[in-house]
Amino acid sequence: MQSKEQMENFSVSKACYLSYPLPVVLSVMQLEPRNATVLLGDEVRFNCTTNELWDVMVWQHNGRSVLTISSAHGPLGHGNYVWAENRSTSAVSMWELVLRSSTFSPTIQEITCELLPGYNHRQTAGLSVQEYVPEVEGRVVILGGNVSAQVGAPMVLHCQAVGWYPAPAIEWRVNDATVNSSEFNSSSIQDQAGLFNITSTLQLRVEEMSRVQCSASVPALPAPRTSSVFISAVPTENHSVVIIAVTVTVCIIAMVALITVILLCRHKLTKSKLFQDQLRFDQQKSEKDSEEHEGKVNFGYNSEGPPGFGYPHQAVTETTADTRKVPDIIYIMSHEPRQASAADYANVPRREGLVKIRQSTTV
Fold it and tell me: How far is CA 133 from each of CA 105, 171, 174, 216, rounded to the nearest angstrom?
């Protein structure tokens, strides 16, 4: 309620304004900003400016009066969430409305400034209150976290932003470079509370280790909300190198096997040869032992005497039916060959009839 003194002062000021002629000026009234965006719970300010004379300025929020200002006495009362500040100059009259703890609404709210008395002295601005819930984790998140992929392989990343109003703008960055909006897709769903849930999909090819960021923002946010992941690039296997490596390995194994077989065969042959040599040696030794105890056949014997020496096919001649053994005749050979003589046969016992003589030569 206005006091009696205030009403009298108001009447006096009105009479003073009417008693003096006013210069003819162009009437100007402005309400700024025309559209404002604020986060739920933050404060917002609107300026109502005019060069006209006025008595009362009325501020309304969605058609409901929230503050009245007298040109003579200033604000007539105020609340905990709304008040006004005088920004007037000598040229214009300007009052600033301050709204604190703006309430959320999924629709645009109206802020109205009206000057009284006057005709059509009314301006309206729009107020958008946006909401996000900072205490809920994962407001913006790239699903899957850090991943690994082969160089050149395609990859799909999904980013989710939940609980926004209005629908936030989504931005992707790869190694701090902004991705063109044509390279990713975003879709939004509005829940029963009027909040938006956004899903954005990015397709890219991995060329190197990369840092990928997904950001969601609304105009009221001082900085976007961002989620980041790292993609590790794994070198692509070179199939030709693998084939060469496998071939070399197989060749080495085959060579080692071949060498092993050759060595085993050689060892076996060597062992067999040693065994045969041992048998031959044993046989020769046995024959030598036998020769030491027995005489040797003289294949050069001839019944006609020395002239037949040297003809093996005449070595043994039977002249009679009687056979008699004779002692061995041993010639000791010098470096020069010696011809047999008649004296060599002089001491050989003879008897009438058949005589069989065996001549042996030892070298």
Answer: 15, 20, 27, 13
β-bridge mates for residue 318, sequence order = none
Q: What is the pLDDT of residues 213-246, one digit of tens each?
A: 999 988 878 888 999 999 988 877 665 667 788 8
Residue 183: name the closest of 209, 163, 156 by CA. Answer: 156
Q: What is the DSSP letter of 111?
A: E
Instruction: Count the neighbouring beta carbons within 10 Å of the beta carbon of residue 155.
Output: 17
Residue type for 344, please?
D
Quick check: 55 and 7 in contact, CB under 8 A? no
Taking alpha carbons only, the member of 104, 94, 83 closest to residue 196 is: 104
Q: Report the alpha-carbon distance of residue 72 to residue 301 in Å, rounded.
A: 175
From residue 294, give the alpha-carbon distance in Å to each of 272, 280, 284, 287, 328. 33, 21, 15, 10, 10
Element (H, E) at 31: strand 29-32
pLDDT(261) > 90: no
Distance CA 232, CA 360 (A): 100
d(CA 169, CA 171): 7
* Segment 130-145, tens digit of pLDDT: 776 554 445 899 998 8
CB 99 within 8 A of CB 61: yes
